[in-house]
Amino acid sequence: MTSEQATYARVIRRETHSPRSGLAIVLAVILILVCAWLGTEIVLALLGRPALLVAPVDMGRGVVAIGRYPTVPVIIAGVIVAIIGLILVVVSVSAGRRARHVLPSQRSAIVVDDEVIASALARQASYAGNIDPDDVEVRVSRRSASVRIRPTSGQSVDKDAIEHAVTEMLERYQTAPALHARVSVQKEAKVGA
Fold first, then answer.
1. Most buried one in 46, 60, 74, 149, CB count within 10 A?
2. Beta bridge partners of 146
3. What is the pTM for the complete model shown?
4. Which residues cross the membrane (predicted)?
5. pLDDT by residue (tens digit) across 133-165?
């Protein structure tokens, strides 16, 4: 892999995956607030003042005496903390995904927003079916493109022609990850103007 290709791969990765900085900032703020609260409680205890919520001595006694508490609430609290921890680990390890796809190119990095692909597929479906573009709704997800057609009353729609045109367009695009088209025609037609 040349340095140019490595640069393109890095750009593509950055543009198609979302960072976890938002979650990291929220967790850091929560941790800072907890540490500030604990520090305030310790200072208040050293000055002989009443605690804001719980005195540090009482917190320590509560942790030491956890075996004397009823078992069910302690287990429930432990399960809740474990689930929150598991969710945070999964979120931190898994990559976030932006609504974008990559198009093949030897000379550059091409990243296309899913809305652009949806717009092109809607236009292609309206041309292939000889229907109004407002009658076509397209949603693009990670692996599929869903084309929904709501024809005007009294107008017939050739679903196979539309499906062929949309599939052919997706094959030309060669998106990564690959998209598969699903075309559906609603039974309830809208009233023509």
1. 149
2. 139, 182
3. 0.63
4. 21-47, 67-91
5. 888 899 998 889 999 988 877 777 888 888 999
- Domain coordinates of the chain in residue numbers? 3-97, 100-185
Half-sphere exposure of 64 (CA within 13 A, CB side): 6
Beta bridge partners of 157: none
Check whether 193 has a pLDDT greater than 60: no
Amino acid identity at 107 = R
Q: What CATH code is assigned to 100-185?
A: 3.30.70
Provide the pLDDT confidence category of residue 129 given band limits of 50, 70 and 90: confident
